[in-house]
Write a structure and sequence with these properties.
The protein is an alpha/beta fold and 420 residues long. 37% of the residues lie in helices and 14% in strands. The termini are far apart. Bound molecules: pyridoxal-5'-phosphate (PLP).
């Protein structure tokens, strides 16, 4: 089935007489008749639910939908996008290991990688997305467990050169992990380009209505852990699961992530949030079409405006990422764009405060258009040098174009620019 069909049909399928849409299974625990039945669940010998810290039917419905959309094998619904990233790292990294990551990434991820993970002995090595393959490759050593990047970086809106990174990962047998939040599986399926683990903040387009926090890890089950010395923990028996060897399983990463990391952290998505996200994702394909069409019009308008210093959106022919976007995201890169206003930082504030319909929010990628000034909000912890390496000039305004009528969005921007 095509992506737009999967949005409405994949995931949950009722049996005779059951509810047509997934129900909110608001239960911590599940009943079994036999002791052996429960023992098999605990040994991972049988499929089923026993405690909602590990798995839950409502969450599973969404996991199956997103896994199908990504063309992956297995999904894990997490409490947030950040927890999805943390669990992914925890599944493969221990103290002394390192991850090699693009520096143009979401601010929260940047903090996790550069400040929090080092406290646990996991080092992050950053590369510029435009660096050549040799320079990125030079960061990899025998303790590198993950190469990480975002399909469309938030908020820099750079587009990932999948082929460049996939070739490096393949050569060294390293997991290629991509955060596909802003592209969504409707616009790009990273598994097609050699990615092994796909991550989402479902808080953004997947839910689409700014109603539910959530994250998703999709294991594409296309990575060979068996005998790979880099991933020793997948090749030795797990004593907490009666000697299970994850590399021998059909879905090694996903199983280990749930069995160990969900168990130990409890960072699972709530059934309520899974339900809201499931309903929201039904219209994902339809919404992305409108987000992309609107963004293209708004970008062209901004580009032509004398008070705008620069505009970054890959739909613009002279955008540095136009060619990569055409190659990997031919149907559009979504509603996110950034631009700089002629003048200093105070001009940014004047513009944003003059907007009527478009609101200032610490959020992106939902149905309503919104703006943010990262240097004074989400990224204010970063130094000038860090801002630079994250691709965020001080006068950058991030605009998330919603699904309103494009004429109304442009009219609001136009009247605000008059006041600058
Ligand atoms: C928002 C976001 C995250 C973090 O997700 P939360 O659901 O807010 O925890 C991670 N990556 C990207 C690209 C994001 O936009």
């Amino acid at each position: 089935m095509k992506q737009d069909t999967l949005c409405v049909q994949a995931g949950y399928r009722p049996k005779n007489g059951e509810s047509r849409i997934p129900q909110i299974c608001q239960s911590t625990t599940f009943y079994y008749e036999s002791t052996q039945g429960m023992a098999d669940l605990f040994d991972l010998k049988a499929d089923g639910f026993f405690y909602s810290r590990l798995a839950n039917p409502t969450v599973e419905a969404l996991e199956k939908k997103v896994a199908a959309l990504e063309g992956g094998a297995y999904g894990l619904g997490c409490a947030s996008g950040m927890s999805a990233i943390l669990l992914t790292v925890m599944t493969v990294c221990g103290a002394g290991d390192n991850i090699v990551t693009a520096s143009e990434i979401y601010g929260g991820t940047y903090n996790l990688f550069s400040v929090t993970l080092p406290k646990f002995g996991v080092e992050s090595r950053f590369f510029d997305m435009n660096a050549n393959a040799e320079d990125i490759e030079a960061l990899i050593d025998e303790r590198t467990k993950i190469v990480f990047a975002e399909t469309v970086a938030n908020p820099a809106i750079s587009v990932l050169d999948f082929d460049k990174i996939a070739a490096i990962c393949k050569k060294h047998g390293v997991l290629f992990v991509v955060d596909n939040t802003l592209a969504t599986p409707v616009l790009c399926r990273p598994a097609q380009f050699g990615v092994n683990i796909v991550i989402h903040s479902t808080t953004k387009y997947m839910d689409g209505h700014a109603a539910a926090l959530g994250g998703m890890i999709v294991d594409c089950a296309n990575f060979n852990f068996k005998g790979n010395a880099r991933y020793a923990s997948f090749n030795v028996p797990d004593e907490s699961y009666h000697g299970l060897v994850y590399a021998d399983l059909p879905v090694p990463f996903g199983t280990k992530c749930r069995a160990q990391m969900m168990r130990d952290t409890g960072a699972i998505m709530s059934p309520q949030n899974a339900f809201i996200t499931y309903i929201g994702s039904d219209t994902l394909a339809l919404r992305m079409e409108r987000h992309c069409a609107n963004a293209k019009k708004v970008a062209a308008y901004l580009k032509s405006h004398p008070k705008i210093a620069w505009v970054r959106h890959s739909s613009l022919p002279d955008d540095p990422y136009h060619a990569l976007a055409q190659k990997y995201l031919p149907n559009g890169t979504g509603g996110m764009m950034s631009f700089g206003i002629q003048g200093d930082v105070s001009a940014c504030a004047r513009f944003m405060e003059a907007l009527n319909m478009i609101t200032q929010e610490t959020h992106v990628a939902d149905v309503r258009s919104c703006v943010l000034h990262p240097a004074s909000t989400t990224h204010r912890q970063l130094s000038d040098a860090q801002l630079e390496s994250a691709g965020i000039p001080k006068n950058l305004i991030r605009l998330s174009v919603g699904i309103e009528n494009a004429e109304d969005i442009i009219a609001d921007i136009a009247q605000a620019l008059e006041k600058v």
